[in-house]
Amino acid sequence: MLYTDAAVIGAGVLGCFTARALTELEISVTVIEEKEDVCTGITRANTGIIYTGCDNRPGSRKAAMCVKANREFDQLARGLDVRFSRCGSVMAAFGPRGEDVLRRKYRQGLSNGVPGLRLLSRDELAEAEPLLSRDAVLGLYAPGTGTVEPWELGIAAFENASANGALFRLNEKVIHMERSGSRFILETDRETILARTVINCAGLSADAVREMLRVPAVRIFPTGADYIVLGDSLKGQIRHVIFHEPEEKRKGLTIVPAVDGSILAGPTERSADLAPEGATCAEGLEELRKLCAEVVPDLPLTEQIRTFSALRPNPRSVQRENGRWVPVDHSIRDFLILNEDGLISLIGIKTPGLTCAAELGRFCASLAAGALSGPGRNRHFNPRRTGIPRVHEMKENDRAALIRTDPDFGEIVCQCHDVTAGEIREAIRRGAVTPDGVKRRTGAGMGVCQGCRCISRVQAMLTGMRKNAPQTDSPGHSGTEKPEERHGIY
Amino acid sequence: MEYTDILVIGGGAAGMAAALAASEAGRRVLLCEKEDRPGGILNRCTHRGFGRAFLGRDLTGQEYAGFFAERLYKSAAEVRTGVTVLSLSQDRTALLSGRKGLFRIKFRFCILAAGCLEKTPGSLGIPGTRPAGVLTAGTAQLLENTDGLIAGYRPVILGSGDVGLIMARQFAESGREVVALIEQKDQVGGLLRNRRECLEPYRIPVLLHTAAVEILGRDRITGVRIRDLETGFTRILHCDTLITAAGLIPDRTLCRDLMPAGRLPDWLRLCGNCESIHDIVDSVTREAMALGASLGQEAPRK
Question: What's the whole-number average pLDDT of chain B?
Fold first, then answer.
């Protein structure tokens, strides 16, 4: 049996930031994640946009959190050593409906306190984004919009939380939860965990986790989304995040210049039933290509390197009808954070959830602190984390010096992004157990060849290192448990 | 800074032949190969058919690579393995990275023999899941012929070019069932000899006018939905592997930033599959030899 003050269920970007915020308190923190690695669920399939807050209604929790989070994002990214590109965004309208929406968002942004917003004429828009269709009539420029790699942000929070003492238990699933006096009893598929407060960050399963203890009130009704990724040969051709505001009532196209140089087009909005979880759907991709041809006709879709899909967790209130729980209303628009007697649930957190991840984590930690009747501050908390060296971004002299001290950093494994054996070794040491885990931590396999050329070497390194894995050298070595029990990764 | 007359990037068939010829013409030659031995893609090719035209012998890819590697090491050309060229600059220098360090080298000419990239399953954009077991022919060759692993037991092969035909034979001759070779066009591609040697003896089912329209399976691929392009009918082929052999693209990433006017600088030459995709290695060798020899003879510039 394991005793912990706070148990976090789910290690996506929200779970990781919640854990990080909890380690600022003088309490024990345990994170339980079903999968073999962190950030493999909703976090993995995301546009990676850091929003400004002009899309959210004044007075909403989303607006307040988003504006604050955006303002503080440079500092957060610097502290966690995460790549963040504040490229700005242009929203483009193609007719009267779109123009109305833009003007409304402009006013809304001003009243939310979003800095630097400006309406762009047709010519200014064309100058800002040469590939954008000339049919666009009005633009809304938001200099504060940025992009990150969502998993990079989540993994950074995981490593920092870990280093500050949070215990991450991977490959472990909560199957039952009950309340006994002031404690929660969590039965997992490995052991029993006693916790004083539980923070439910279980993503698409957050409603099911909550219902282990409570009567259904809100359920997640996912919709599907498809994306296309174009290779970095087009780097620089898209300068800002482009939001397309369609004339018809449907989801517009978003185009994102990602921090690694690739370009993301998507998402569509379609029924989740059209394709199984994790699968793209032909109609969705076709729709996306059609939209691209309208909005950015000169963007060469022939540079496509992959497609992927995501599920959007839409929370809706439910009530009982003829023995079934049915939705009674549209999707709940604001962030839904329930605090039910020490069980804190984040249900259906979607856009701008990634932007607000640190804010949401802090908010959950403050609720947890209340449930734990005001614990003290952790005086040893260190907000800084150093990432894996990004060798190909280093200056020539520094790079040469690094290779002299450690030849692994000279050996290129991923030809597309010039990722070295040293970086891959470090990713494995920090918890990557699959080629995908290495990919998310280093970018190896994310380029135009999609891992064709490096997968064999990466797999060999994974196999070799897991055989000879160090027993103590892992992030956040703090407790007395054996490492394999803490991380479940060796 | 180190200097060489001719820098050859890539130690595959093209790079080896170009380096050999330039070195025989009396030039100082440095060949950089990213892997730990020269040979390139040839090292993954355990099948025969190499050298029939150029050497008059029927060798495996590995033997063909060995034939030239031996000569290369005996020549005056310097060979550095485990070294990747990171970038080329207009001032005719290259930035190289390897376990021995990061260094710049100055050169008079550069021969880019970086080979080609395969079209990936991702770039094909076949809808469906992204399970394990969907891989390019080149990756399958790498896993099986270099690493000694098994790529799969019941493959569907997508694309009937030479690469697809050779993969079909590789699976079939080791007793594995090739579920089908599928091809969008109305006839099998590839060289006549490959059609004859790879398909007929093994009775591999070939489906023409057929496209893969959906990948099925959660963790590992369990099937491919295919569509008959004439009738529009779809059906599922059950398999545990999908091998894509959908085409090759010259890999010119290194000269991407050197062509502002759409033209290569005069000090840079492309060679082998990096220049254009070749049917047989023999013609790669022949062209590379000619290029190496002609650059070797060009008078020094002032």
Answer: 94
- A220, amino acid identity: I
Q: Which CATH class is domain B2-117+249-297?
A: alpha beta
Is the CATH number of domain A391-470 1.10.10.1100? yes
CB-CB neighbors (< 8 A) of B117 in chain A: 448-449, 452
Measured between beta carbons, the chain B residues lying within 8 angstroms of A229 are 122
Which pLDDT value is given to residue A464?
Answer: 86
Chain B residues within 8 A of A279 when measuring between CB atoms? 127-130, 215
Calculate Rg over the CA atoms of chain A: 23
User: Which option is the CATH number for A83-146+223-312: 3.40.605.10, 1.10.238.10, 3.40.50.970, 3.30.9.10?
Assistant: 3.30.9.10
Q: SS3 letters for B45-112?
A: CCCEEECCCCCCCCEEHHHHHHHHHHHHHHCCCEEEECEEEEEEECCCEEEEEECCEEEEEEEEEEEE
Q: How far apart are CA B179 and CA B239, in angstroms?
A: 7
The string of DSSP letters for B112-127 reads E---EEEPPHHHHT--
Residue B132 has pLDDT above 80, yes or no: yes
- pLDDT more than 70, % of chain B: 99
More confident residue, B259 or A410: A410
Chain A nearest C-alpha distance from B260 (Å): 14
A305 → closest Cβ in B86, B120, B128: B120
Tokens of B131: 């399970």
CB contact under 8 A, B127 and A276: no
> Mind telling me how many Å the CA of A150 is from chain B's nearest CA?
19
Where exactly are the structural domains of chain B? Answer: 2-117+249-297, 120-246
Nearest Cβ partner for A412 among B97, B143, B214:
B97
Confirm or reject contact between B228 and chain A (CB < 8 A). no
Domain ranges, ordered by start, for chain A = 2-44+151-220+324-371, 83-146+223-312, 391-470
What would the mean pLDDT of B11-36 be, rounded to a whole number?
97
C-alpha span between A394 and B117 (Å, rounded): 27
Q: What is the ipTM of this complex?
A: 0.94
Token pair belonging to B33 = 């190969």
* Closest by Cβ to B143, choosing from A416, A450, A456: A456
pLDDT at position B104: 96
Residue range B120-246 forms a domain whose CATH class is alpha beta
A233-237, B94-98, B111-115, range with the lowest pLDDT:
A233-237
Say whether A403 and B218 touch across the interface (CB within 8 A): no
CATH class of A2-44+151-220+324-371: alpha beta
pLDDT of residue A487: 33
Residues of A in contact with B82 (CB under 8 A): 411
Site from B32, B43, B139 to mutate, A interface, most A CB atoms within 10 angstroms: B139
Q: How far is A490 from chain B (nearest CA, A)?
A: 21
Q: What span, in angstroms and rounded, lies between the C-alpha atoms of A57 and A112? A: 8
Low-confidence spans in chain A with pLDDT less than 70: 466-490
Asked if A234 reaches chain B (Cβ–Cβ under 8 Å), the answer is no
